């Protein structure tokens, strides 16, 4: 199977890029749950890479592949150079953020505000594609503010397809650039999955993934069965990775067996040891592990133990072992009742 078919296959299910969440430690853990799912970095701005030289933001473990770098920016030449740096660092895909609604992003004239400038997005995509051999993709909204998605989204997609974009992820909500916080923009604008399906009808050769409000593999399978090419899940994959990712390889890709959170904890221990040996802190990793046992007996004990002990000086793998032991003790006690 070649590179192109590999990355296309992986994008049937992906974990959304999420600021402050999908860092390298989070991605390493997610990969232990699923060997197949496409993973994304947090958004990295092209000025940070090109002008700031912040190449440490591209650090990742080889086990994370397939993994995509999401870039934020609006200068085609700078984005092309950032894409080149990202591809050179080994990323399998370069994704352009045209969906983030934060004030900081707007002031830099990138993110969701670019929905109003499809020609600039297309120019950026074309420049990035000339700079790299890996896929250049776009993550966008259905529109912003008072735009009519039925009018602007087809035009937006036509422009980026004309520039050579072959895969796009559509967050099925508008972004309100004024009046709503980034958090509110993830919840308040109504979801419109129908328009995403309509876009697939208009652009049958464009690989379209849907994002926004998806909380289960049942939903993901329904979207795939209905003809969409991929599904991107964000907060649910982060807060409850076991429910989303542990069954993904079997249910979405037809490979492998389910993974247990206990398996993942055991496999994280050597990674944690190496991180601590390099001067890192335990809570830099365990903050991403809070939801491993969500819904299980003792999940609260697990979270409390990590939150209270992982930030203490000298905290090491023993914190996780103690948390697992406390969970097991509680579960056995409840079974005995």
Can you walk me through this structure?
This protein is an alpha/beta fold and about 325 residues long. The chain has two domains: about 5-250, Alpha-Beta Barrel (TIM Barrel), CATH 3.20.20; about 260-335, Four Helix Bundle (Hemerythrin (Met), subunit A) (Up-down Bundle). About 45% of the residues lie in helices and about 15% in strands. It contains 17 helices and eight strands. The protein has helices at about 5-10, 25-35, 45-50, 75-90, 105, 120-130, 150-160, 180-185, 195-200, 215-225, 235-240, 240-245, 250, 260-275, 285, 300-310, 320-335; strands at about 15, 40-45, 65-70, 95-100, 135-145, 165-175, 205-210, 230-235. An eight-stranded parallel barrel has the order 1-2-3-4-5-6-7-8, surrounded by seven helices. Strand 2, helix 3 (about 45-50) and strand 3 form a beta-alpha-beta unit. Helix 4 (about 75-90) runs parallel beside helix 6, helix 6 (about 120-130) runs parallel beside helix 7 and helix 16 packs antiparallel against helix 17. The longest helix has 19 residues, at about 320-335. The N and C termini lie far apart (about 55 Å).
Q: Can you summarize this structure?
A:
The chain has 17 helices and eight strands. With 337 residues, it is α/β, with parallel strands linked by helices.
The CATH class of the largest domain is: Alpha Beta
Strand content range: 15-25%
The CATH superfamily of the largest domain turns out to be Aldolase class I
Main beta sheet: strand number and arrangement? 8 strands, parallel, barrel
Please name the CATH architecture of the largest domain: Alpha-Beta Barrel
What structural class do you assign from the helix and strand content? Answer: alpha/beta
Rg for CA atoms:
20 Å
Enumerate the strands of the largest sheet in spatial order, edge to edge or round the barrel. Answer: 1-2-3-4-5-6-7-8
Query: pLDDT under 50 segments (min length 5)?
Result: none
At the fold tier of CATH, the topology name of the largest domain is TIM Barrel
Can you write the helix and strand succession as a string? HEHEHEHEHHEHEHHEHEHHHHHHH
Rounded average pLDDT:
94
Number of domains: 2
Number of helices: 17
How does the overall form come out from the CA principal axes?
globular
What's the helical proportion of residues?
Answer: 40-55%
N/C terminus separation: 53 Å
Number of strands: 8
């Amino acid at each position: 199977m070649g590179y192109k078919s590999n990355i296309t296959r992986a994008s049937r299910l992906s974990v959304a890029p999420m600021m402050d969440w999908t860092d390298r430690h989070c991605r390493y853990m997610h990969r232990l749950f699923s060997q197949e799912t496409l993973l994304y970095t947090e958004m990295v701005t092209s000025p940070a890479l090109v002008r700031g030289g912040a190449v440490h933001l591209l650090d990742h473990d080889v086990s994370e592949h397939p993994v995509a770098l999401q870039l934020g920016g609006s200068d085609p030449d700078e984005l092309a150079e950032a894409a080149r740096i990202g591809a050179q660092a080994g990323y399998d895909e370069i994704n352009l953020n045209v969906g983030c609604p934060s004030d900081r992003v707007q002031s830099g004239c990138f993110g969701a505000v670019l929905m109003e400038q499809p020609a600039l997005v297309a120019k950026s995509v074309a420049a990035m594609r000339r700079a790299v051999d890996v896929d250049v993709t776009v993550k966008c909204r259905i529109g912003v503010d008072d735009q009519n998605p039925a009018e602007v989204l087809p035009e937006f997609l036509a422009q980026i397809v004309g520039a050579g974009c072959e895969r796009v992820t559509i967050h099925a909500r508008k972004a309100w650039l004024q009046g709503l916080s980034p958090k509110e923009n993830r919840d308040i604008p109504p979801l419109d999955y129908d328009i995403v399906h309509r876009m697939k009808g208009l652009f049958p050769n464009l690989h379209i993934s849907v994002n926004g409000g998806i909380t289960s593999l049942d939903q993901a399978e329904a979207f795939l069965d209905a003809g969409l090419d991929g599904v991107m899940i964000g907060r649910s994959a982060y807060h409850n990775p076991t429910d989303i990712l542990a069954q993904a390889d079997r249910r979405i890709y037809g490979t492998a067996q389910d993974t247990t959170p206990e398996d993942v904890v055991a496999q994280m221990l050597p990674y944690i040891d190496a991180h601590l040996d390099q001067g890192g802190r335990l809570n830099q990793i365990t903050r991403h592990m809070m939801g491993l046992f969500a819904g299980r007996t003792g999940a609260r004990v697990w979270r409390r133990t990590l939150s209270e002990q992982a930030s203490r000086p000298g905290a090491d793998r023993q914190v996780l072992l103690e948390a697992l032991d406390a969970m097991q003790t509680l579960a056995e006690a409840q079974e005995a009742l």
